[in-house]
Amino acid sequence: MTDAAELTRRTAELLAAHPPATTDRLDFLKARFDAGLSWVHYPEGLGGLDAPRSLQAVVDAELEAAGAPDNDPRRNGIGLGMAAPTILKYGTEEQKQRYLRPLWIGEEVWCQLFSEPGAGSDLAALGTRAVREGDDWIVNGQKVWTSGAHNARWAILIARTDPNVPKHAGITYFICDMTDPGVEVRPLRQITGEAEFNEVFLTDVRIPDSRRLGGIGDGWRVAQTTLNNERVAIGGMRLPREGGMIGPVAKTWRERPELRTHDLHQRLLTLWVEAEVARLTGERLRQQLVAGQPGPEGAGMKLAFARLNQEISGLEVELLGEEGLLYDDWTLRRPELVDFTGREAGYRYLRAKGNSIEGGTSEILLNIVAERVLGLPSEPRTDKDVAWKDLAR
User: Fold this and answer.
1) How far is it, in rounded angstroms, from Cα 23 to Cα 27?
2) CA–CA separation, 18 and 202 (whole Å)
């Protein structure tokens, strides 16, 4: 088994053969992937060494100390956090070899074609259709709230392939080329002024069956891997103490004593403690992932993430008073990534409103926690055994 000493040795060899100061960024990232040091728990030949997931920190620390470039994970969060683990679990060997390397190094950005305007939070009610035609599938429909679709080369897509069975049973999972004819991406301008989200229209898009992940009609099961990883990626990201939203407001508190009041102090202390508890809980969750696939506990982390971000950003705007109402730029922009801490308080406050919607609404996640974590009775579902085509819409 590969241990910490072996990973340290391999990392030193990588740095010696490809000095970060003189090696092109992409060349270094490709060499790191080929050396199995990208995600060490992945199989050999796919960026890993079949090592324990916990040892990734050993590699990352050595590379950071040497000034090595990273793969800019915020730019391709959907690819790294959701598409990659799904491809690893359900993809063919050909699919793994084709997609994982350019995904990890950032040459190909991914997006997620799941949500639909007619399905709301009931993802299994989706209506985008995929009809088999020889070795291809012809896809027609509309997706919405698609983060980063304007930058993406590939998308993970779920579509209905059998309307004659109950809604969860007739879904199939595909990989969609966002550059194919029939794929149209339109910006959705948000309350922040930006359009990081998009709506995507699919008109007679032809997807080869070779880009199907999992079995025909097995898309819901495949999608659960994506969704569980999504919640962990959003709610369980690794942060230092005072990382994330709590950092800027704590910094302002220390540097601007004239803004302080007793009430704000009490609220800040409460939120600081809750943010630290959430951070440590996220660390524990990541350690649990070492033993297997993420479970429903990620839903609880995503819930905490959304609530804390909204409460902390609201407190920051109150602390700043009139300054908190200022905003730097309302012009329509289509950013490559979301930067919660790199802009002003007004942006954080407005952008945090979406945290309880994206990645699964808080209402749906509360049900998941209640039923799958706490073991409470499920809500009555009258449509569970009804064919999708017979559902009221």
Assistant:
1) 7
2) 43
Cα-Cα-Cα-Cα dihedral sign, residues 385, 390, 391, 392: negative
Phi–psi pair at 338, nearest 5 degrees = -100, 125
Say if strands 110-113 and 154-160 run parallel, antiparallel, or are unpaired.
parallel
Alpha helices in the chain (DSSP H): 4-17, 25-34, 56-65, 77-78, 84-90, 93-105, 219-235, 246-255, 262-289, 297-320, 345-351, 362-368
170 is written with which tokens? 């007739």
Q: Is 240 exposed, middle or buried (0-12, 13-18, 19+ CB in 10 A)?
A: exposed
Residues in the chain with pLDDT values less than 50: none
Q: Tell me whether residue 62 is one of the annotated catalytic residues.
A: no
Beta bridge partners of 44: 48
What is the radius of gyration, based on Cα positions, of the chain?
22
Residue 284's CB is within 10 A of a number of other CB atoms, namely: 11
φ, ψ dihedrals at 21, nearest 5°: -70, -25
User: pTM score, two decimals?
Assistant: 0.90
| Closest C-alpha to 198, from 80, 88, 112, 128 | 112
The closest alpha carbon to 250, from 302, 319, 327, 322, belongs to: 319
Q: State the helix-helix crossing angle for 262-289 and 246-255, rounded to 10 degrees.
A: 150
Pairing assessment for the beta strands 110-113 and 183-188 based on DSSP bridges: unpaired
Which of 62, 108, 199, 230 is flagged as catalytic? 230
**Dihedral (C-alpha) 229, 235, 238, 241: value to the nearest 10 degrees?**
-170
CA 269 to chain CA mean position, Å? 29
Token duo for residue 306: 């959304």
196 CB burial (10 A radius; 0-12, 13-18, 19+) = buried
Q: Which two tokens stand for residue 39?
A: 């995600």
Give the per-residue pLDDT at 302.
86
End-to-end CA distance of the chain: 54
| DSSP annotation of 387 | B
